[in-house]
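tool_call: predict_structure(chain=1)
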Amino acid sequence: MLPISIIIPTYNRSTPLRRALQSVLDQDFPRADYEILVVDNASTDATRAVAEEAMQTHGGHAIRYLYEPIPGLLPGRHRGAAESRGSILVFIDDDIEADRGWLAAIHDAFRDPAVHIVGGRNLPNYAVPPPPWIDQVWTRGPDYAYCGFYSLLDFGERRREIDADYIWGLNFSIRRETLYRLGGFHPDTVPRRFQRYQGDGETGLTIKLKEQGLKAIYEPGALVRHLVPAERLTVDYLERRHYFQGVCDSYTAIRKTRGFKFYLYAPLFPASEQELIAYRIQTAYTCGYNYHQVEVKKDPRLFDWVLRENYFDYRYPE
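tool_result:
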C-alpha cells in the first residue's frame, strides 16, 4: 500500500485543475510514495484532456483518471477513496495550489499514530482585489483568522491540536481506516435539481470523529492557496453560499434530533451597508434552512436518506 493518495474530485473546471495538478506534481516528496487520482464528475469541458496530458508528461508519477457519472462531491470523494491505494487519503479541491512542502508536512503530522485527521493553512488567492466589505466576513482573533464563506483559514505558525470542524474539504487528510470506520462523507455540492439531497459534507465526518475523541491536527506547513474568482466576491454570491449553508445545517440538525424545528429570523431594518449585507445573507440562510426542513418533513423517503448510516452507496433515491 502506498503511503498517500491525493484525490481531486472535479467538475468543469479544467483551467484551475491544471494549476492544482501541477502543484501536487511539484511536491518536495518522493514521487514513488504518493499517487494522484483525478475523479471527473461527468465534466463537459477539457477535464479529461488535462488529466491525460499530466499522465503523459509526468510518467514518473502515479496519476489516474476516473470518470464518475453520478453528480455531486460525495460520489467523487467516495469513488476516489474506493479506487485509491494509500493508507492516508488527502482530499483537495480542484481550485487550490499547494505549497511545495505541503505533502511532506501532512506526512510528517501523521507520524504520530494518535493523529487521525490533518488540515492546514488555507490562504486566499484573490483573482481581483477584494471589496471593502471582505473583512466583515472574516473572524479574527489574536492567533487565528478564518472565513468559512471561502474556506480560508490561518491558525498561525505552530502545529497544534484543533477542533476537527476547522478541517475543511479543500485540504482534508484522513487515515484510510478512519474514513471507513466513521462511515465516510455525507452528501455535498449536489446539482440544483438534487438540492433536497444535500447534506453536510465533511462536517458529518468530523462530528463523528469528535464524538469518538479522535485527534485532529492543524499543520501550518500543509499550506494551500485557494482561488477566489471575481464572481465570488459579490454579495449575491454570499447570499447563495449562505442559502446552501442553511440547507447543510438543517441536515445536521435533523440527524442530531431526529425531528424538525424551523428557523425564525426577525432582524431590525438595516441602517448601513454592513447591516444590509448581514441582513441579506442571514435571510438567505433562513430560507435555505427552512426549505430543507419542509422537504424532509413531507417526504419519509428523504427523511430516511438524511438518517442513513453511511453513503458508500451514493446513488440518489430518484
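agent: The longest strand covers residues 215-228. Proceeding to next step.
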